[in-house]
């Protein structure tokens, strides 16, 4: 059953979950804003090279989206940290300090672990991050996350190459293992110490390289933990190498105090040695994974004070999370020695002087880190009490600070977007083009109307006239049917009869084959129908292209021309767009127009419906005559049926062109749509007339569309973290 403190911690974590979801939503919206501003900035750069107006160019150059994009990237990082904080299933207490200050002893006292956490007595501290998770219901075990080859190079090895100026960094671990560049013999002691650390990775590579391919997390027993986090065995006789490839270790155990709730102790790398990357890793861990931090310092009994390294460590931690002042979520533990040399007085003296030395924390605690009872009572209890009482307020302050910056960022973006909206001018002097446009449009509308209506009258007069292209295709198909009948010879019939042992069966088989052979010749009529329709479309396109001047917008012909214009037309000009779609997509096909009318005349070549039956004593000659007769009769009827259809393409052409003219000339409001469309593309349609005006309305329209997209994305309600 959960105790009061355990219940409080559970309640805190549950209240964080809705905040985590809200942060994720704001994070997604901020990414949308970033993309919209990126598109806006990209289009701005393009416009600068296209616009001739110097004033517009000047206004475009004044739009500063670079700084905002940089700020958005920073805020996305901050939101990521905030989301991690609110998504965790534990309250995390980080423990940091310089090497050999008692940090590991404190962790042992709080967690109940012993040698699983290596102390510094035998030089076995490592840079491996360890998290110790309280779970009262399990036996102690560990989970190990290993470096991949890539992360090992990027996070561990490459920083050494940069610090030591070793030249080209290895691209693969094999390159690193093969050769390690040397340093100058007169290098400083610090450089030599850093190089020695790197050499350890190089010399011992074969002893840990197999772990890069090990699956993570890798579960280990309590007894195995030390092998992955320490350099030496407990007695110091056996040296371990696994830790070189380890990225993080998680230890699950039951803490001595059962009511600590869902907490995790995070053992961060001890600072003060020559291992590179510790500062960077510390800042990353503090910023992303820690709710409260404990600094640990063991004053030297022989004399000590607040040293620069102590203040430096404090400043490093303070820089990790600027949204929440470090003094609101940190404690300083002064490790008191009660055996041998006594540093008690010095601990209390440093406790009283911490603030004067620039170290501000919630509380400075003096306690013996090696004493489990004292560590739990004097250190852990106050911290857990502080967390349960204050974490909600800290979360609120953290989120509020993020929100304040987001609000300022949204306002800054809004300012730049408003500048973008008027960058190409507000058309105060652009009105001069309108009278010119009106006259040009009126003439074009008149010419286009006369041209399309004239074509429609011609098609109306010809709609009952046989289509020449189609008629030629029909004649060619009929001739092919006559020349290539598919009718077998006498000898073929005899062979077929021998195979099936019956003239009747052979006869029925030939009926099917000849019907199929005959019908395939009519499939070529598709070409005639398409050719006929494309000819009509070409006449329409010729008028649109020349009289309507739309050739300035596309160099395509026929159906492709119509499709291009349809795609160019804005979606809000629905009537005009529909007209071009109807004509562009209209097709005549053999299967849709003719096939069903032909097939019924082929029934006589179907065994069940054949009008000529074999006699009681059939012969090959009789089958041949019957097949020839039935084929001729079927072809005659097909030809007669097609004769009646020779006007169909003309009638269909008239119908579709009339539909097109209705849509683009006669429908309600279509005149306005032409007016709007041609106004936007006037500089393309009448290039010479508008060249002196220096106006390109299509660019303006596209620019304002991109601006509006950015404005719609940059709404304050989309980046509200708090109600």
Provide a descriptive summary of the structure in words.
The chain is of the alpha/beta class and 723 residues long. It has 3 domains: 1-89 and 392-426 and 694-723, no CATH class; 113-254, no CATH class; 430-692. Helices cover 59% and strands 7% of the residues. It is built from 28 helices and 9 strands. Strands 4-3-5-2-6-1-7-8-9 form a 9-stranded mixed β-sheet, sandwiched between helices. The two termini are 34 Å apart. The model has no long low-confidence stretch (mean pLDDT 87).
Name the beta content range: 5-15%
| Count of helical stretches | 28
Strands of the widest sheet, in order across it, are 4-3-5-2-6-1-7-8-9
CA-to-CA gap between the ends? 34 Å
| Rg (C-alpha, Å) | 43 Å
User: What structural class do helix, strand and pairing data support?
Assistant: alpha/beta
* Morphology call: elongated
Helix fraction, binned, reads 55-70%
Q: What does the average pLDDT come to?
A: 87
Reported for the largest beta sheet, the result is:
9 strands, mixed
**Poorly predicted ranges:** none
Q: Count every beta strand, where a strand is a DSSP E run of 2 or more residues.
A: 9
Domain module count? 3
Short description:
This protein is of the alpha/beta class and 723 residues long. The protein is 59% helix and 7% strand.
